[in-house]
Amino acid sequence: MKTTTTFIKRTDSTWRPQCVYWSPSTGDLLVGMYYIYTEIGKVTRYNQSGQLTQTIELDTGRGLYSDPIYITENNNGDAVVSDFGSGTVVVTERGGRHRFSYTGHPSGSGLGPWGICTDALSHILVCDEWTKTVQMLDKDGQFLSHLLTESQEMGRPWGLSYDVSTHHLWVGSRDNNKLCVYRYITRQDALTDEHRPRPDGEAMFSSSAVEWR
User: Fold this and answer.
1) Residue 51 maps to a domain
2) How far apart are alpha carbons 38 and 159 in whole angstroms?
């Protein structure tokens, strides 16, 4: 706690760091950046010494990101970005190649992506502001299920975190100062990879809520 490593030191106000994720597998730091003048984004990767090792910005000459606000990593090394500016979840492989962009269910129906995480089964979980749901995708971007549909308890889901020890999903609400904890897969599911969510159904099994005042 007494050692500090500076990864980014801004010398001007053009590129703004907006979201970060530390990779437990590589020790790298992934940072989502936003260019304030042209409203484009990029993802940068830093090693444990704070050196820039990778920049992910373009796909066949076109920009991948508009406004990256949350970033995480999947078990296969994919960088998974919630890009609110373009209304997409953008996924690139570890080498930087664009794999797919998810634009809602059905495809192209629109998405207001906020909090995002992945779980032990390599599912991608994302909060959608427009439908007020948490959506589950497989690692290749195929929609699987609504984990959490709009409810009076939750309001608009905003932030997500997956607990690798308990396999619980922590969901923060924008509307009612609640942090809810949900169980939707078991330890056995994580070990056997047998969890099969029911398509387009609410898949949460139980919950508890903590209110912050």
Assistant:
1) yes
2) 27
